[in-house]
Write a sequence for this structure.
């Protein structure tokens, strides 16, 4: 347990700072920490930027990964985009997309690191332009 806490603390140092309009979520999958930075309070039909940061057990950035996202709304079987992420910095990858409906979306980050595929699921609530969470 202490090792896991230490690895998490080391990884925080390599993360880019968050803008005031962003939120951060993080999961560790088989020794790779997948961090997803997204817009706070996203709305439908507005461009969205997704920043993924990959770090190893020691918090070091993981470059050279193949990263894409799968945006899905299971409630009504609505599958959204699957944007490819491009490298933008040490261990950082960025993708852009748009949510088509309000409600809870599942954003799955897929990262192929050193030939091994890892995935992390993040839930994001998307609002209508009037601010209501469901359409």
């Amino acid at each position: 347990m202490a090792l896991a806490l230490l690895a998490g603390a080391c990884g925080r140092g390599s993360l880019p700072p968050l803008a005031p309009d962003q939120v951060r979520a993080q999961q560790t999958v088989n020794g790779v920490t997948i961090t997803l930075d997204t817009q706070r309070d996203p709305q439908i039909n507005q461009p969205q930027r997704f920043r993924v940061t990959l770090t190893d057990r020691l918090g070091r950035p993981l470059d050279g990964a193949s990263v894409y996202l799968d945006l899905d709304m299971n409630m009504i079987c609505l599958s959204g985009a699957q944007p490819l992420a491009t490298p933008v910095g040490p261990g950082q990858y960025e993708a852009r997309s748009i949510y088509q409906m309000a409600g809870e979306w599942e954003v799955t980050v897929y990262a192929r690191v050193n030939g091994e595929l890892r995935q992390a699921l993040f839930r994001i609530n998307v609002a209508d332009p009037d601010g209501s969470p469901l359409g």
Q: What stands out?
A: The first strand starts at residue 22 and ends at 29. The mean pLDDT is 85. Strands lie at 22-29, 32-39, 47-55, 66-73, 78-79, 86-89, 92-98, 103-113, 116-126. The longest helix spans residues 2-12.
